[in-house]
Every structure is written in structure tokens, then in C-alpha cells.
Amino acid sequence: MVRAPVERVWGVLTDYSGRPRYYPRVVRAQVLERDGPRVVVRYAVQIGFFTFHLHMNKVADPARHRIDWQLA
Q1: Which residue, 50, 49, 42, is CA-closest to 58?
Q2: Which of 14, 16, 44, 60 could form a disulfide with 37 if both were Cys (CB 3.0 to 4.6 A apart)?
Q3: Paired sense of beta strands 38-47 and 50-61, if any
Q4: Average pLDDT of span 2-31
Q5: DSSP state, 62?
């Protein structure tokens, strides 16, 4: 249960470049493409001395308060 207005929660969920604030192993998040509700985000994840990068396709649906995603 989150006690906050929907708009505030949605703002946090769609702040893709802000992921390092919430996920300690995510050291960088960069929006590479933006086309309306669709974005491609490049994440850098660090585990110990190993850092790997992954790309995600995300599509935000604010009417249903839903974000669909898949690895790119």
C-alpha cells in the first residue's frame, strides 16, 4: 500500500533515469529513445567488480497505470 497521489507514484515509475536512487545495483540509467509512451532505456548494473549493460523497451499506459516492458 502506497499512501500517495496516483500522479506522484506515476511520476516516480516513469522517471526511468532516476532508477539508481531506488535500486542499489543500478549505477546508471539512460533514456536512449523516446517516442510518445515508448522509451528505450539503457541500464548499467554493477555486481561486485562486474558491470553489465542491458536495454529495455518500455511502454507506459497512464490510463491503466501500467508499464509494459521487455528486454531489447
Answers
A1: 42
A2: 60
A3: antiparallel
A4: 94
A5: T
- Beta-carbon count within 10 A of 13 CB: 15
Average pLDDT, the chain: 95
Tell me the domain boundaries of the chain: 6-71
Higher-pLDDT residue of 47, 2: 47
Q: Which residues of 23-50 are buried (b: 16+ CB within 10 A; e: fewer)?
A: eeeeeebeeeeeeeeebbbbbebeeeee
Does 2 have pLDDT greater than 90?
no
pTM: 0.86
Give domain 6-71's CATH number out of 3.20.20.450, 3.30.530.20, 3.10.580.10, 3.40.190.10. Answer: 3.30.530.20
**Cα 58–Cα 51–Cα 44 angle in degrees, nearest 5:** 25
